[in-house]
């Protein structure tokens, strides 16, 4: 309830009717129309983004078919609003509802201006970053705008004119009380005072912080990051120890406390001592320590930072998490070199070379030094996927992940060219490897690895693959896991139980249908973290028999389970069956090939099926396979599937372009028995064979069993 309001003249209004009148007048003036406005002058400063053809499509009437398609795409249990009907209602009664829905259908468009044409017309001079860097004039955020201009009177006056023009035609106003201007260190105080007077904006000597990160740092990095620790301490101190359950403690740590330093860790490599303090703060909160009141840490803070299936609690080790976030930034820099921030970084730190060859330099900034930390992790945890081979160096870059060095090594003292590219080892006509001239200079193991490496579409650029993720794309989760596994052996010597106890047992503990405190008890038991006589004696804690828990001895059986794929020969067979629309047998092939992995082998079978279809002159085909990942990728879901199969699948796409009609379809292995039998090692014909019109006798029985009629 509003008891009183202050009027424009500074007097307080308390009478309810007058308070209500003030509120009504305020919002009526705020939202009332100012009449028609002339946008012409302002639109001249904005480049057009909609073509005439696009405009015709946008203003065209919406057809009934488009409305129906939109309605049918609604989820069955989803609604248009809190009081709207669910999708299943529209799906079930569309015939009765379509007239009403079509008459109420309104199409709305929203467009945002992303650049100022005034910069290109020289009304405003942006800031050029380096000799080869981009010119930055503005950056738009969700509700903030940053403008970068040359500090002179012309730019300031033109900016004021543009702002006034926009306010006049839009009816919106700029809040100058919340605006500020910051000048570079080389601008004299007299000059920026004059320019600030033109802009009518207050001058600040510190731009402040954005998303919690200060724009200006002092000389001491540790002191500059002190605010993060203060925010973390504010979340864990006080009443929370008394009223939160075990599960509540875990949620507070993972969802709140550990999220506080995430954004600055994306940009800067924190000092090891700062990360240690963060880890200690979380561990103290978890075990109940507060101020001078210390509690026993039954498990080290390093183990708390391990995943639950490795014996930890899934807390983050801040140093490794920091590295994983920095790798994400490096990955963006490599995968999207044309973005604004990537062009700025390149112009500033490596204008004449690639990111891989860039050096730290004499006066490197904190941000650039941090990026180099992420680059070192990428170099050790990724490799190049060969497509055209134009970007990868044979003797330098990692492109053969099965070799220890990642690339072939020259025998003896043979001099090699460091700039030799992989594309020089490829026959472009047949898409096969041409390494005969290298055989006298490299080991036989490297020769076999190269020959087994599948080639993709040579028109595509080579791609960087992150080894720890299935689809080859880096994620913070996979990077953090990779870093943990990398440091685990050298970090945890005091508690080797994290490496002795199998993952299945840890997973069993955390999946038990019991309260969280019971699962935590089992976890502590496995870590020998209970306050029983034996453990207290080992920790040299004075024992009071009255307070010691009764010892409960238990035996835990350790068991291991292994499964895998035999990669000793890297070879196999592909089975292809071709039938017409009536199911009649037309052709078959058993094809022997070499492949580095199961995923690549499944893709090779699809490639061979396409090649057989084109060689027999088919124009319309439906390709069926029991490899769901390959079919999903070929159907357009490019983010799924294995990176190992990607080069072969690009060739499948390329070959399929020869068909007039081509559709991909997944079938279970039970429905693909004939092709599966043809590819098996139990098939009588052990070599590569092709049958056209009439199958082999050993295949006839399988085809008949599958319900596929065979010619007499």
Summarize the model shown.
The chain is mainly alpha-helical and 712 residues long.
Features:
mainly alpha, 19 strands, 41% helix
Folded structure, characterized:
- The protein is mainly alpha-helical.
- It folds into 7 domains: 1-31, no CATH class; 56-104, no CATH class; 117-205, no CATH class; 221-382 and 480-495, no CATH class; 387-461, no CATH class; 507-563, no CATH class; 571-705, Ribonuclease H-like superfamily/Ribonuclease H (Nucleotidyltransferase, domain 5, 2-Layer Sandwich).
- Helix content is 41%, strand content 10%.
- It contains 30 helices and 19 strands.
- The strands form 9 sheets. It has a 3-stranded antiparallel β-sheet. It has a two-stranded antiparallel ribbon with strand order 1-2. Strands 3-4 form a two-stranded antiparallel sheet.
- Helix 9 (189-199) links the parallel strand 7 and strand 8 (202-203).
- Helix 26 (598-615) runs parallel beside helix 28 (646-656).
- The termini are far apart.
- Mean pLDDT is 78; it is low at 106-115 and 545-566.
What can be said about the biggest beta sheet?
Answer: 3 strands, antiparallel
Round the mean pLDDT to the nearest integer and report it: 78
Summed up, the helix count is 30
Q: Could you tell me how far the N terminus lies from the C terminus, measured between alpha carbons in angstroms?
A: 91 Å
Shape: globular
Q: Tally the beta strands.
A: 19
Proportion in β-strands: 5-15%
Question: Please, how many domains?
Answer: 7
Q: Indicate the structural class.
A: mainly alpha
Rg of Cα set:
34 Å
Largest beta sheet: strand ordering:
15-16-19
Poorly predicted tracts of residues: 106-115, 545-566
Residue share in helix:
40-55%
């Amino acid at each position: 309830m509003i008891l009183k309001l202050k009027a424009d003249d500074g007097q307080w209004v308390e009478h309810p009717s007058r308070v209500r009148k003030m509120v009504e007048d305020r919002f009526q003036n705020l939202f009332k129309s100012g009449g028609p406005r002339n946008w012409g002058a302002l639109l001249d400063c904005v480049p057009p983004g909609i073509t005439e053809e696009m405009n015709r499509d946008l203003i065209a009437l919406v057809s009934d078919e488009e409305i129906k398609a939109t309605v049918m795409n609604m989820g069955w249990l989803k609604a248009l609003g809190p009081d709207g009907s669910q999708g299943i209602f529209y799906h079930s009664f569309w015939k009765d509802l379509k007239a009403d829905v079509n008459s109420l259908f309104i199409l709305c468009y929203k467009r945002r201006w992303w650049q100022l044409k005034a910069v290109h017309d020289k009304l405003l001079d942006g800031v050029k970053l380096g000799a080869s860097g981009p010119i930055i004039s503005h950056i738009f955020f969700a509700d903030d705008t940053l403008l970068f201009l040359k500090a002179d009177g012309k730019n300031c006056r033109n900016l004021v004119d543009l702002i006034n023009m926009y306010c006049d035609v839009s009816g919106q106003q700029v809040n100058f009380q919340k605006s500020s201007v910051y000048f570079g260190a080389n601008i004299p105080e007299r000059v920026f005072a004059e320019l600030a007077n033109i802009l009518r904006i207050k001058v600040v000597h510190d731009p402040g912080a954005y998303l919690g990160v200060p724009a200006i740092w002092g000389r001491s990095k540790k002191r500059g990051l002190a605010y993060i620790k203060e925010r973390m301490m504010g979340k864990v101190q006080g009443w929370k120890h008394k009223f939160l359950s075990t599960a509540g403690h875990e949620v507070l740590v993972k969802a709140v406390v550990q999220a506080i330093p995430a954004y600055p860790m994306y940009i800067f490599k924190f000092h090891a001592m700062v990360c240690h303090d963060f880890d200690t703060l979380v561990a103290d909160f978890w075990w109940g320590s507060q101020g001078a009141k210390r509690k026993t840490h039954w498990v080290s803070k390093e183990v708390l930072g391990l995943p639950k299936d490795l014996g930890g609690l899934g807390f983050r080790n801040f140093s490794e998490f920091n590295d994983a976030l920095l790798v994400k930034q490096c990955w963006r820099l490599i995968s999207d070199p044309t973005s604004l921030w990537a062009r700025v970084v390149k112009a500033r730190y490596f204008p004449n070379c690639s990111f891989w060859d860039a050096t730290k330099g004499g006066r490197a900034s904190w941000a650039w030094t941090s990026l180099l930390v992420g680059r070192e992790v990428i170099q050790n945890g990724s490799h190049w996927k060969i497509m055209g081979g134009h970007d990868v160096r044979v003797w330098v870059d990692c492109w053969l992940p099965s070799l220890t060095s990642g690339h072939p090594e020259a025998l003896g003292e043979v001099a090699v060219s460091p700039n030799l590219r992989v594309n020089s080892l490829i026959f472009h006509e047949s898409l096969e490897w041409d390494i005969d001239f290298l055989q006298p200079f490299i080991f036989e193991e490297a020769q076999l690895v190269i020959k087994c490496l599948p080639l993709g579409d040579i028109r595509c650029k080579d791609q960087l693959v992150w080894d720890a993720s299935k689809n080859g794309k880096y994620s913070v989760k996979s990077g953090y896991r990779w870093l943990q596994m990398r440091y685990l052996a050298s970090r945890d010597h005091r508690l080797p139980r994290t490496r002795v106890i199998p993952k299945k047992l840890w997973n069993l503990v955390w999946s038990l249908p019991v309260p969280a405190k019971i699962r935590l008890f089992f976890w502590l038991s496995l870590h020998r973290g209970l306050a029983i006589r034996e453990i207290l004696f080992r920790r040299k804690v004075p024992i009071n028999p009255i307070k010691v828990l009764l010892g409960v001895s238990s035996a835990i059986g350790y068991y291991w389970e292994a499964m895998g794929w035999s990669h000793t020969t890297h070879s196999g067979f592909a089975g292809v069956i071709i039938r017409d629309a009536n199911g009649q047998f037309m052709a078959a092939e058993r094809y022997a090939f070499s492949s580095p992995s199961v995923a690549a082998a499944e893709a090779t079978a699809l490639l061979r099926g396409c090649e057989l279809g084109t060689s027999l002159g088919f124009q319309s085909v439906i390709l069926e396979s029991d490899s769901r990942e390959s079919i999903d990728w070929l159907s357009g879901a490019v983010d799924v599937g294995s990176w190992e199969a990607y080069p072969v699948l690009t060739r499948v796409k390329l070959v399929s372009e020869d068909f007039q009609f081509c559709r991909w379809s997944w079938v279970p292995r039970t429905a693909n028995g004939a092709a599966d039998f043809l590819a098996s090692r139990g098939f009588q014909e052990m070599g590569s064979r092709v049958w056209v019109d009439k199958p082999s006798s050993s295949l006839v029985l399988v085809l008949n069993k599958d319900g596929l009629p065979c010619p007499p």
